[in-house]
Write a structure and sequence with these properties.
By secondary structure, the protein is mostly beta strands. It contains one helix and 29 strands. A hairpin with a 5-residue loop joins strand 16 and strand 17. It is globular. The N and C termini lie close together (8 Å).
Amino acid sequence: MTACAIEGGTAGAATTAEPGPEESGEPEEPVGAVPADPAIPWSAASHAPGAFTLTADGAYGARLTAAPGPPGERAWYPERWTLDGPEPYAVPLPLHQPEEPDAQVVPLADGRVLIRRRVADRQMFSLLYPTGPGTGELALGAVECEGMTLLPPAPDGSSVYALSPGEHSSLLWLVAGGAFGPELVAEIPGHCSGGAWLDGAGRMLALDRRLPGGGPVKAVAVDLERNGEVTPLLQIAPESNDRLLLADADSGLLLLRSDAPGHDRLGWGVLGSCLPVRFPECLRPADVAVTPFAVQPGQMLMPESCAVALRIDGAAGSWVGVWRPQGRRLHQFAAPEGWAAGAGYWSGDGVLHLPYANTGTPCGVALLDAPADDGPLPGTGGHGGHGGADGMTNGGTDGSTGGTEPSAAIAPPAVCKPVPLGQAPLHRTASPAGHRTASPG
């Protein structure tokens, strides 16, 4: 994927970044859990106490929590949430002593919770599970390194990988699901971060990488069945920082952040497409930060129809956004009180589940139906909708102006053979100004 196009400007204002030669390096930043700050990669934000992590199917969640108390005296312990039953419920998993606030927890599909603890210069891993009134613990082993972070849960629900970044190379470890404790899977040249799964089998992992000699951050794909073979994933412009945030295996929809348009922007593309990345204007409302955290599954080969849930952070706090590529409108909703900001998952029929906890509800899930993008699309005749300015309720926001180019759903691009993103053509035939066809890639 080597070109970009700006959505939502006036006619003829869409731009294409001229790509350069393909590089072998790539990204820095993904998904799956709860970024405390939209500018911080998942792998860094997931260290924060209270970060809520979900299994790939949304059946279980886990977080590090504590009973109320003075900030410096809180006793932290893991907590597992069961979300696939008739009523959600939480199970505390405390041991004989409190956990450190920098511990990380990830739920598995069988209900156990993996915990990573740092003890001196070692990273120690255990599986926790409820045993009647107490908590059982199965030690998995340790890795000697100063820094390590758990990656988003693998699609199979039983494997958990961890990343140990270094100045010149990064180590990828299988820390749960292996046969003999933590296993080194691959050593990847460069400093890596992030982590997003590109397929439903847990074979292809996307990481954000900066090469040892420096330069921009680029997203790369790591093939876990080929000894960690690395191939380029995002190549939008030669010097742009291109980070992958989310990927949906069913539709191929990718959510990314790049400064190829001239400054940092949220964009989208399609895995395997030779069409340019799009950067919708509606995804950069003023004075807030927008970060995607969940994509509607089950939309086979229909990336433009996927509902995307976004965390919106502003001076008033955090709330929820919903957007579809084909609709090109950002709908905004108030978050439930006590929402684990940035955590949630979609059902296949378009219902967003948002876990929350407050004094009245210690374990709850709020349901939000994906709104329909009614009315004409901007730039297709008539006036673009102007949802209410009420950002904390159902105020649909049409981030576009008049004269916007039509979406690909209305004006399909010329047929081209899909190729891997890193092999997309470097040049495209320019259309006359004002008549450039928008494309979903």
